[in-house]
Amino acid sequence: MPLPIIVAGAMAGLNLIGGLNQNDAIDKQATANWNANLMGLNQKRGVDVNNLVNKGREVNESIGIALTNLDNQARKAKASTIVTTTERNIYGATAVKLQGQVDNDAAAMFDNIVQKGEAAMTDVQMGFSNAMYAYNSGVQGASIQRQNMLNQKQGSFELLSGTVSAGISGYAMGKSLEG
């Protein structure tokens, strides 16, 4: 077999193998970067969600404590009102009015505590929405980054034209070596 054809074949083959290896390396790196990005996003989302769940528990516990304290205060106020009405010999509509005022005050405080709890839980739920948005945004960014990296791969036509070009150069080199 003539030397120019051997050199052309060797250069074309090496060029094709190099292009395929480069494509494989780009694919592996893009996948590794994608997996690393997703792992980081999943860890951050897990931490964020855990913190928000704990914050929700704290809100529930503080509301429960506040409502229990309010119930105790309402009982004390009722008892105090009963003692006051008995000691002063107040009865009938006036006693009922005093007792009703204690009940109204307790109900207003109850509503106030519940509203504060609802506002705090709305903040927690907004935190969940923000955490999910950040995660989805991160996944989108990782997807774009991966696609940009995969776009650096040589297509079939580029590989073929590079192989033909290397073959022609190899043939010319073989001709010049041959004499």
Structure notes:
The protein contains three helices and no strands. The chain is an all-alpha fold and 179 residues long. It has a single domain (3-156), classed as Helix Hairpins (Orthogonal Bundle), CATH 1.10.287.
Order of helices and strands: HHH
Helix content: over 70%
Number of domains: 1
- Net shape: rod-shaped
Number of strands: 0
**Text of the CATH class:** Mainly Alpha
CATH architecture: Orthogonal Bundle
Q: Which ranges are low-confidence, i.e. pLDDT below 50, for 5 or more consecutive residues?
A: none
Radius of gyration: 39 Å
- Structural class per helix/strand content? mainly alpha
Put simply, the count of helices is: 3
Question: Which short descriptors sum up this protein?
Answer:
Helix Hairpins; 93% helix; 179 residues; mainly alpha; single chain; 3 helices
What is this entry, summarized?
The protein contains 3 helices and no strands.
SSE order and pairing:
Layout: H1 3-87, H2 93-150, H3 156-178
Helix pairs in contact: 1-2, 1-3
